[in-house]
Amino acid sequence: MPTTVPPGFVADASLRVWVVTTIANTAAPTVAEINAGTTIDATCYLTNGFTPDAAVATISDDRLCLAQILEDKGVTTWSISELEYIFDVQNAASVSNKLYAGLPENAQVFIVARYGMNVDTAAAAGQKVDVFPSKMGPPVKLPPERNTKGRVKQKPFVNGVVQRDVALV
Amino acid sequence: MAKAQPTPPGPEVEEAPAAAPTVEELLGTDDPYELVRAKDATTGAEYTTTRVAALNAGSTVLTKPARDQFGQIVPTKTVLDLRAETNPTDADADAPGNTNPQE
User: Fold this and answer.
1) What value does the mean pLDDT take over residues A43-48?
2) Is residue B89 within a helix (H) or strand (E), and if so which, with residue range?
3) Which of A93, A104, B14, B48 could be joined to B23 by an S-S link, Cβ 3.0–4.6 Å?
C-alpha cells in the first residue's frame, strides 16, 4: 500500500485574530459578537505574530516502592506573548491607531484566534476558534528603528478560562 | 369634453442626506484617549474603552464613570437574551453551543 501524505494547510495568512469586547458565553461565541462594531480585527495590526502558550506544571510522584519517580500533569498556566502592533498616536481616529485606541491599559477583552482558514474568510457559524479572556497590560512604545513602522508592545494577561476549538454559533 | 388630467407630480427633489460626522468631528477638542463608558448598539453591552475607540465603533458614549471607587476600570456589562437561554426549542437542542439542551 503506498504511503499517503496528508496535505495539511498552508500557514501563510491562515490566522485571524480578533479583539472582542463582549462575549456572553465563551464556550459558544457568536458570529454577531465577532462582527460587532466594537470588535477590532487585529490581524493586520500585529507585526510579530500571535503566540499563546500553555505552561504545564509537573507533579513529581515519588513512591517508596519504586526506583523511578513518576510524574503527573499539574496545573496549566495560559499566557500570550506580548502583542506588537502598529499605532499612530498623533492621529487618534486614524485607522492605523484603531487597535492602540481600543486596548487601553486594564481593558478586559476577549482575544479570539481562528487558525487554518484564509484570513479573508468571513466569520461564520461552525468555524473553530480559540478564546482567550485577557486583561491588557500597559502599551509600551518601542524605540524607533530605521526602516520599520512605529510599534507598541502590550502584554495580554489571560485572566479567564481559555476555550480551545469552540465553534462559532 | 375632455377631463382635465391632473398634473402628474414632478420628480421629488430629494435632499442629499447630511453627511454623518466623522470621528474627528465627534471628538472635537475632547481627549481621544480618555476612558469612557460606552454602549454597543448591536449587543447592548456597556463597556469601558477610550473615547476615540468608542466613536470608531459607533457606540454611544455614556456619562457614567469609567472607573470605580477603587480606580479600577468598570468591567463590561454583557446583555444576555434570557428568553433564548431559558426557552430552547426542540430544533435548538442539538445546536452547537446550546447550553440548555432539552431532555
Assistant:
1) 96
2) none
3) A93
Question: B22: nearest CA in chain A?
Answer: A93
- Cβ of A36 within 8 Å of Cβ of B40? The answer is yes
CB A37 to CB B40 under 8 A?
A: yes
Q: Which residues pair with A153 in a beta bridge?
A: A84, A140
Nearest to A54 by CA among A24, A82, A15, A81: A81
Length of chain B in terms of residues written: 103
Task: Quote the CA–CA distance of A116 and A111 in Å, as a whole number.
Answer: 17
Q: How confident is the model at residue B44 (pLDDT cuts 50, 70, 90)?
A: confident
ipTM of the complex: 0.85
User: How many residues would you count in chain A?
Assistant: 169
CA angle at A96 for the pair A99 and B32, rounded to the nearest 5°: 65
How much is the pTM?
0.84
A156 pairs with which residues across the strands?
A136
H or E element, residue A136: strand A128-136
The reply to whether residue A92 touches residue B35, judged by beta carbons under 8 angstroms, is no
What's the Cα-to-Cα distance from A66 to each of A41, A61, A71, rounded to whole Å?
A: 54, 10, 12
